[in-house]
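ugh finaly. both done.
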Amino acid sequence: MRSLIITSAVFSAFAAAALLFSGCGQKVRDDRAVLKLYSDPDGAAVTLLKREVGKTPYGCRISHGTHVVKIAKANYSPVWMTVTLKPGEEKKINVKLEPEKASVLFTSKPSGAAVHLNDKFVGETPFVLKDVAPGNYTALLKLPGYSPQSVKWSVSSARPQSINTVLVSNVGSLKVTSVPDKAQVKLNDAPVGDTPYNARLEQGKYKVTVVKAGYSIYEQTVLVNRDREAIVQAKMEPLPGNLKLTTVPSGASVSINGKDYGSTPLNVSSLPRGHYKLEFRKTGFDPLSIEIDLAGGQTVERNLALSSSTGQLDFVTYPPGVTVYLDGQLKGSTVRDPNNPEISSVFTIRGLTPGKHSLELVHKRARPNRKVIQVRIEKGKTERLDNLTMWIANSTLEMKDGRISTGRFIARQANGKVMFEPEPGVQVTYRADEIKSITPIKDKE
């Protein structure tokens, strides 16, 4: 900072005035104010009392009161201010000078070009870029179909500028055909239309992809030059098809056009496109035949329900634990129903050929210990029999008088009496005080 400057001449004048008005040893009071002016940047001209008095930093003594001050510097907007000073006051003022800014008009032929300044989009021609500070600048103009154009300019004052640019076309043409036709065309992976395809494109490299369902994908990188035509001829090969076959139930043998391929579930790949006849066979089910038109690249899925050529037999026994034979073949034994131990769960025999069958129930304690039932089975149907009952002793009753009976315990009545069946169809009621014990017979006995 430059200190307050008072020249020797001014100082001498001050001293003379002081002596002049001191008169008879009296002192004259100096009530002027001190004004100090600073600017950023410094070196700005200071106008005070309607004349330029110096450059910042600047200081002076000045009469108190209100004064108009102007601070100005080349390429910066001037600052005007009103300063009011009190007698004997010292005032410091700092001023921030703002650079002068200009407006720049951008036009182009053709118009509509995007203007990028410092890699940032600022507008489309024609447009005005406002408040441009002094300095050197470079902008890039871009318009589809034309070569990017760089422009440069400088700002040294607030004077408006105009920049006009003539853009140069960089467009060529592309033609795409295919066998087969009506295939989708993609440029750089973006769909643009179907073959035959013609377009005007900016100069440059393009990835051309041609796609059609059922055919191999065609790809080619092509260079489009300005005012030239690039040609792409895509030939695509048909793709094989696939079959995915399932049946309910599974395990059906499959033949395709008379050739055996295995059993379901079955995947058959790489079949040429065409018409196919498929046959499904499984023991106990009717043969099934279907026809399929298979397109290239297509996966056809079929889930088929086979119609049973056999029937099914369902029944419940009372009580459970009965051995079951059908047509002389052992099929197993009935088991207790978890929700009702007096009867068995449903016993099912599947895969029965249509017609008459002989069902035989056997239990060593049953009376009689063998029961035969004739049943008729129909194709694809389930024959459900009424509950099958056998008289089977389930308890040993010992009386207090020493008598022992083996039979079927039926129930204990509310009055304490016991209902017991020593023989099929013979029910006896005993008083509780006559009975010594009732012992259940285990199934293995």
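ok and the 2nd:
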Amino acid sequence: MKTIKTPKLLAGNEYIKDAIRVVNAAKERVCLMTMIISYDELTKDLIDAIANAKQRGVKVDIAVDIFTYLEIGGNLRFNTSHSQRTRSVELLKKTLKTANIKVNWLGRDTLLILSGRTHCKWLIADNTTYSFGGVNLYGKGVTNADFMLRYDDKDLSDYLMKEYHRIVKAEKTRSKSRSHHFDTSFGRVLIDGGRVSDSIIYRRAKQLVQDAESVVYVSQYCPTGKLAQLLKNKPTKLYFNPWQQSTSMNALFIRISSWRTKLKTDYSRQSYIHSKFIICTMPDGSKVAITGSHNFAGGGVWLGTREIALETDNQKIVEQLESFVVNHLA
């Protein structure tokens, strides 16, 4: 009988350390999908491990959103200048090119800065998948209040490999796919394919919150849209960043959305929240969670971002999310 391991929640630094070990042991495949990445003190060992995997004959696939250049370099030029801020990205490109790894840059043809972004995040090494969290692979991304779930399951790894190729092909044809789902032994994987106003993750979050007795909400942003209205009518613990702890566009967005919704955060720590999950306690006492890359903000729905999330009622996963709240947020 196949032994099924419960997915393990790993905070940013733990995720990097664990992933290095798994990638170093990989024999068949490594697949990375991320929104932001750079070659810096906190990520270089993982990137080197991926490059070494390629050198020993492992098949390596990497896709990165060009939002990397906005976050790290301050602009969206694909061939950006060799400034101090972009040096870590240029070093990344050089390292991967030396290892003969092609990077698929996503989102080059979008007209707006935030529309059409690929916000999904996963790392596959053979049959191990890290996903359903928000960790971006650069210094700040690793040190945020964030995590990834380690999932040891061949079916999930195979499915996300297919999803990877679907996204890369969609970029070449400038197309988007409908949101869809995939069932696993620990819950349902929800995928937003990037179509404007089509988010299975946001729809499911609304349904669960509507039916819940109480809710724990975690995101970098204040909830907006119909979800915000539902949360106002429920006993809810809200953990999102105070606008004073955010910068530039994020601070403005949080300030405006908090003012419009009249929702206040319960978060008072210093670390920047980048994790995104909702835990719903249902009328029968059971708990259901959605965790992944979606910020649960209505804007991401009409902008058409690609997202991934796990919906689960597995008690061991829910308990790990609750422990994350206690240890990092409350």
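summary for the 2nd one i guess: The first strand starts at residue 8 and ends at 11.
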